[in-house]
Amino acid sequence: MPSRAVWWRQVPPTDSQFPPLAVADLILVQHDRSLRALDARTGEKRWTSSYTRDGGYAPWTLALEKDRLYAFRDEVNPRNALSLHSVDLKTGSLRSLPVSLPDFDGGRRAHETRLLLVAGGTAYVYAQKRAEEKSDEGWHIVAIDLRTGRERWRKPVGYDGQDGITAKARGRHLVTARPMEDTLEAWDTRTGKVIWDWSLPGTGLFLYRNQLALDSTCLYYSTSELRSIPFRDPNGGWRFGKGRDKGLATGSRLYGRPALKDGVVYAAEGTRGLVAVDARDGTLLWECDIDQKPNLDTTPLVGKKYVYLADDRSSQISAIDLRDHKVAWTTPVPSRFDTTPVAHERARRFIWISGEIVCALPFE
After folding, report:
1. Are 31 and 45 in contact (CB under 8 A)?
2. pLDDT given at position 217
3. Radius of gyration of the chain (CA)
4. In terms of residue numbers, what domain contains 60?
5. Number of helices (H), then strands (E), in the chain
């Protein structure tokens, strides 16, 4: 284990599609047929909640809002209707909410349903309309008011659940990303209207949960350049990176997944290191070279003292000091990250998973 590890635990093989979640004082890890809760400070197991349906695979899709956790689970009921639950963080037990989507498939293709996120008291769901429903059938995004249990809007989408989808919302804007088509879409959270869609051909858009960076005015994204995409005008944002030395990097991906904090956009650059850019106008604030090629798929994690950056082989983590913009320390990790690492800010822990190992480093 890394010399700086606060704790580590061996667990059953984890599901690489679902990064760990930080909620309340817990780290939640998903396995093939269970959800495991670990104490974020100590790594001790709090509970395990198993879920099966007739002995088969019954996936959960989880979403957080502050210290509340919500989940979908395929149901054994007369119509296999989709329903929504809250998760008791003390025990892992489910409590059914007064939300039901009876005309969406909770059986045959429930494993492709996504509870995309919960924001502002609204749950955004990606689900398939039942085949027997002849009108408006197919895959939809549905917004549900969790206070009333009522559907706010539903909009059909022209893509299949097997393609996957990830999303994030800020204020009036919801952004969805579709990896198979390298497409981003901005939605109005009040009406479900698509404000714009943005195609990024050949960039390999795959994103883990929470890897979209946005504020109330812009989405921040990276390909061959680091850029802002304003919601009011997707062509009106700034671009950063043209003509810069990016080391030995080639191809369409020259910048890593950006992170946004306190008006600053952080991203790995080529094979060199990290750049910090002003979110308002794209001005370079500072940069730092590291000894190893940075990982362009892993989003930097930004603490109060350091920015944490993984190298391309995910075998080393560098902590870059936010004051002097130099590498303060590095620590090796024993294997590749299976998913993007997460920060538990309350417990001050940096959590990564590799195979059957969950490990915590100090997050400062």
Report:
1. no
2. 96
3. 21
4. 51-211
5. 0, 34
- Residues 6 or more apart from 30 whose CB is under 8 A from it? 14, 15, 18, 36, 60, 62
pTM score: 0.92
Check residues 313 and 267 and name the one with the higher pLDDT. Answer: 267
* pLDDT of res. 57: 43
Burial 293-309 (b: 16+ CB within 10 A, else e): bbbbbbbbbbbeebbbb
Task: Please answer whether residues 257 and 298 qualify as being in contact, where contact means their C-beta atoms are separated by less than 8 angstroms.
Answer: yes
State both tokens at 203: 């960039």
Mean of pLDDT values over 315-327: 94
CA atoms of 112 and 128, how far apart (whole Å): 9
* Dist CA 192 CA 172 (whole Å): 10
90 Cβ partners below 8 Å, 6+ apart? 46, 47
Neighbouring residues of 179: CB distance < 8 A, sequence distance ≥ 6: 163, 164, 166, 204, 205, 206, 207
Average pLDDT for residues 318-329, to the nearest whole number?
96
Residues in the chain: 364
In a domain, 323, yes or no: no
Q: Looking at residue 103, which CATH number applies to its domain?
A: 2.40.128.630
For residue 287, tell me if it sits in a domain: no
The answer to whether residues 338 and 351 touch, using CB atoms and an 8 Å cutoff, is no
> Residue 199 and residue 197: Cα distance in Å, rounded?
7
Q: In total, how many domains does the chain have? A: 1
pLDDT tens-digit readout, 107-152? 655 667 788 999 999 999 988 887 665 555 688 899 999 999 899 9
